[in-house]
Specification:
The protein has 236 residues and is an alpha/beta fold. Helix content is 31%, strand content 25%. The strands form two sheets. It has a nine-stranded mixed β-sheet with strand order 5-4-6-7-3-8-9-10-11, sandwiched between helices. The protein has a two-stranded antiparallel ribbon with strand order 1-2. Strand 9 and strand 10 form a beta hairpin. The protein is globular and about 45 Å long. The site of adenosine-5'-triphosphate (ATP) has 13 residues, from helix 1 and helix 2.
Length: 236
């Protein structure tokens, strides 16, 4: 069986994963503060909307939408026509208090499912799963909630990028230590000043590149250098 691929459209990246993410997979995008996670996620949706006519939904848990708007404005991206054409949407998830978070998440999943259906969404980005956990104090409950949430998203048939904040260590893949097992794929971003780099830790059902590659953030978004490598030993 040949897997259908979803081309991220991020320059230099797709060849690291044999042409793109396996269609329908859930890919964890991990990294420390300021490693480029949000920009990577936005680039994935922007390219999908602009070049592949695939509608995408950006689900944020950030307190305000400023960071996202700043991020969009800093690039040479024409977002407005894509939003107007129903190819791109930003949705801020509403979680109120720490009371009955499970029920709220269930309700939010219903809202998200509604958008997915209405827009014919093919791509989802959740920024971030780490922020979801903030509302729950018990470790066991966090795991349960993450499984439920991921399963719920998986049923929607989109190819999903889940963003996880880490402390930035070389082998840190998530905040709760479970996200990387739930996900079908793990892509890690590093910032070892002044260099940024990217590494595909796993991708179920497909071969993928095993090296660490430099990338840069330019006015066009993310650009990976698939032919240049960074030695694992040289990284902190
Ligand atoms: N136009 C630009 N050109 C070059 N670099 C930029 C540009 N805009 C932002 N950056 C870099 O990208 C970084 C932020 O990237 P991003 O917000 O995607 O990181 P993040 O991993 O999501 O961070 P956080 O942990 O705060 O969520 C900035 O700190 C800056 O170094
Ligand atoms: Mg971010």
């Amino acid at each position: 069986m040949v897997l259908d691929r979803v081309k991220t459209g991020i320059r230099g990246f797709d060849e690291l994963v044999a042409g793109g993410f396996p269609q329908g997979s859930t890919v964890l995008l991990s990294g420390g503060a300021g490693t480029g996670k949000t920009i990577f996620g936005l680039s994935y949706l922007y390219a999908g909307a602009k070049y592949y006519n695939e509608p995408g939904l950006y689900i944020t848990l950030e307190g305000n939408l400023k960071n996202i708007v700043w991020n969009m404005e800093t690039f040479r991206w024409d977002i407005k026509p894509l939003q107007d054409a129903g190819l791109l949407k930003i949705y801020k998830m509403n979680l109120h208090t720490s009371e009955n978070v499970e029920k709220q998440i269930e309700e939010e999943l219903t809202v998200i499912a509604g958008f997915v259906k209405q827009m014919g969404c093919k791509r989802l980005v959740v920024d971030s799963t780490t922020a979801l956990g903030v509302w729950i104090s018990e470790q066991g409950k966090i795991r349960n909630m993450l499984f439920t949430f991921t399963d719920g998203l998986k049923d929607l048939g989109c190819t999903t990028m889940m963003i996880a904040e880490t402390k930035g260590g070389k082998t840190d893949y998530s905040a709760f230590g479970v996200e990387e097992f739930v996900a079908d794929g793990v892509v890690v971003l590093y910032f070892t000043p002044p260099n940024r780099s990217i590494f595909v830790r796993k991708m179920r059902g497909t071969n993928h590149n095993k090296a660490v590659h430099p990338f840069s953030i330019t006015e066009e978004g993310i650009e990976v250098k698939p032919r240049d490598e960074i030695m694992w030993e040289a990284m902190k």
